[in-house]
Amino acid sequence: MTTKRHLHLAPWIFTLGFFLAWEIICRVLKVSTFVLPAPSTIAQAIWEYRNQLAFHAMHTLWMTLAGFGIAVAFGLLLGMALGASRLINAGTYPLLVGFNSIPKVAVVPILVFWFGVGWVPPVMTAFLISFFPIVVNVATGIATVEPEMEDVLRALGASKRDIVFKVGVPRAMPYFFGSLKVAITLAYVGSVIGEQNASNVGIGNLLTRASAAFEVPLVWAALVVLAVLGVVMYVITALIERSMTGWAQRSDMAAA
Amino acid sequence: MTTFVDIQDVTHVYARAEDGAPAVQNLNLTVREDEFAAIVGPSGCGKSTLMKLATGLQFPREGTVIVGGREVGAPVKLAGMAFQNPTMLPWRTTLDNILLPLEIVEPHRSRLRKHKAEYVAKAECLLAQVGLKGQGHKFPWQLSGGMQQRASLCRALIHEPKLLMLDEPFGALDTFTREELWCVMRDLHAAQKVTIILVTHDLREAAFLADRIFCMSARPGRIVAEREVEFPRPRDLEITYSAPFASLVQELRGHIAQARAAA
Lengths: 256, 263
Fold this sequence. Notes:
The structure holds two protein chains of two kinds.
Chain A: H1 2-28, H2 39-48, H3 50-84, H4 86-101, H5 108-115, H6 120-143, H7 147-155, H8 160-198, H9 203-212, H10 216-244, H11 252-255
Helix pairs in contact in A: 2-10, 3-4, 3-6, 3-8, 3-9, 5-6, 6-8, 7-8, 8-9, 8-10, 9-10
Chain B: E1 3-12, E2 24-32, E3 36-40, H1 47-55, E4 62-67, E5 70-71, E6 79-83, H2 94-99, H3 108-111, H4 116-129, H5 145-157, E7 163-167, H6 175-191, E8 195-200, H7 203-209, E9 212-216, E10 223-228, H8 243-262
Parallel strand pairs in B: 3-8, 3-9, 6-7, 7-8
Antiparallel strand pairs in B: 1-2, 1-4, 4-5, 9-10
Helix pairs in contact in B: 7-8
């Protein structure tokens, strides 16, 4: 019982402790706000700019979710193709890895050439940066179906499609949800990069303008808002995961 | 009785075999309809290859495989399979696992949705036969290894296969559970008209269950001895402690020892 309560409290205590330590260091060492504002200063800035922050955060949230949604759909489809066919897997892997190695900041100008400044570049950047882990994980889940299970079904006359949909896809779900947790945070990185370079709204754009004007507390306030949004989305993904793949989280290790 | 599985002079080399050595060579084997055949042999003798050949998962390089009067050129569709590993899908309940073959095999595949209740009743009946009455709603990982293996037998039988292939199905179980499952298997065979090929390392298991036992040689596998088992049915576990049973097991052991020495 007590261990369980400790586990529930631990994230709050650690987070509060982190900000408390930060505050104390800033005050004791008299760190300039320009270098590192104390959490209290950042909190003040958040309150002061709350309307502006909320507006831009909502925009960023939309960009992120749109890009993430496309990444999920695309990642699932491509992952299924890669997992089901060794030929497609072998053929496309170098391309995928090569593409994933390109820093997405470098792709944003190209997106601007194509689509102009607006909502498309942030959404596309979020998509491009977050689909790769989904593809790899779904493909792994499908490609690692037990050969005996495959034999049982093939001996019944099951087609490749049957095996992929009856066994491969459900089996890949824990991998899929694991990758979603990585992908959702990556999607934030993507949409903010897109907004910084090719949008007139969104937290990314706010960051660019605030740093150009040396409004350091506002920059930090924007970063904190981003982090909080990221945590909230992560938690939602994790909750969905737990309700969908409870069968995969039955070991004591997952429960502890 | 008519021949159901006829393997004639079959040699098989896996496409992936690095040395190109055959897994089985000049293999001859016939199993009659509704017969319970057991195949024993030293490990790595190609018993699993034999299973794959008979179910149409692999096609022989030479020779012919005839199952149910037709030469095998594709997965046979009338077979059920069970392995040492129960391979239950953890996201399905035990009952849904057992119904899985019906989602694949015609004519059940197109009937399943409309006649679900009928099929569920059939699955429940099978569960009761293997001693798992009322356990269908549980997930397989909530069952013990022996119970999972029973469920796996139900899955292999749900679509009323003509041919049941068992690849060391009781290999991973403790002695008591294994003997219990022998009796389950014996009763299932008595209740349903089905040809069974059991691949096993356990000579007592083969002698207790089978009508006929084939001994295979070491790789490349072929049949070195064939032995009818004449104990009357229904057999009781007690017979495994009788003198004729012991001498049969000893005789089989001799064949295997010879096959191992020859390798």
